[in-house]
Amino acid sequence: MLDIKIEITKNPKVLPGADNPLKFGTIFTDHMFLMNYETGKGWYDPRVIPYQPLNLEPSAMVFHYGQEMFEGLKAYKTGDGRTLLFRPDKNIERANKTNRRICIPEIPEEDFLQAIKAVVKTDEAWVPTKEGTSLYIRPFIIATDPFLGVKPSERYLFIIILSPVGAYYPEGLNPVKIWIEDEYVRAVKGGIGEAKTGANYVASLKSQVKAHDEGYSQVLWLDGVHRKYIEEVGAMNIFFKINGTVITPELNGSILPGVTRDSVLVLCREWGLPTEERKISIDEVYEAAQNGTLEEVWGSGTAAVISPVGQLRWEDNIMQVQDGGIGPISQRLYDTITGIQLGNIEDTHGWIVEVN
Ligand SMILES: *Cc1c(COP(=O)(O)O)cnc(C)c1O
Fold this sequence. Notes:
Blueprint: E1 5-6, E2 31-38, E3 42-50, H1 62-65, E4 68-70, E5 73-77, E6 83-86, H2 88-101, H3 109-122, E7 134-143, E8 155-165, E9 176-181, H4 198-202, H5 205-213, E10 218-222, E11 230-233, E12 237-242, E13 245-248, H6 259-270, E14 275-277, H7 282-291, E15 294-301, E16 305-314, E17 317-320, H8 328-341, E18 352-354
Parallel strand pairs: 1-3, 9-10, 9-16, 13-14
Antiparallel strand pairs: 2-3, 2-8, 4-7, 5-6, 5-7, 6-18, 7-8, 10-11, 12-13, 12-15, 15-16, 16-17
Bound molecules: pyridoxal-5'-phosphate.
């Protein structure tokens, strides 16, 4: 058990009004969680304090060598006023997996959960209630040693910030258009693709800008060796329904193991849909689109939950999916997962953790 000190702000902000669209990632709550680490001392000084700028040395290692990790999960408000987390244990387990990969000290799982609950509880009034909204939780760790030179840092800061959010894509559940990248790559096996770290995102920016310029909202990555096998979308895992079978790329070391991906697989199996986790090439997807068996494509991730894909562009080929509309499985997955998250559908999997 952490002994978390709580300092309440003397200048609370005005809560966003009911008509505020809560543009993703733009509004932050009144408080944040902080905890320090130092070699020999371990994690220490857990505290909830008013949200404020950090005070760091310009030589802090995170600025120079990118030793940083993050997580993303959400808290939801139920109709009867409870605050629920969705599968936080999976995020925490993944966080420590990321930590191990990039030489950041692990955080005991129960301490991590306690920290999330403490800060969410402090800012519980910020959990929005309107349909489609939630409180996005962003835990992250940065290397803070004031040192130039490449090695794991001796000091870290673990931080949790909170942001009330509406839909991730302005389109909401409307289908997105996706650009299949064949020039740049995001990650390779043996690299850090399966770790949730900012470094993967910086590698993706150039391609994202290119896709946006062409009118596409997201990039779909191919594998870094053959430029042939599907990997994932920028911040989502990807699913194809071809001729009745739900197919998603296997976790091969360069793909981020999404919590939503796992939930989608569990539900599809329960619904009796054939599912396959395997290599799937862009040629296979293209052929399915040509012969009419590409029934649905959707992305999965905490931010958007389920994001139907209406169009894929690969080189000069444009593939329409579901005539650009929302497929029935995408819709059912979205309704079921958000229903469980909001406490409207019975949680038969032990996925829900109440903040109390
Ligand atoms: C976070 C993330 C996902 C989605 O994972 P969830 O746990 O479902 O939110 C997918 N891909 C990348 C690169 C990510 O960073």
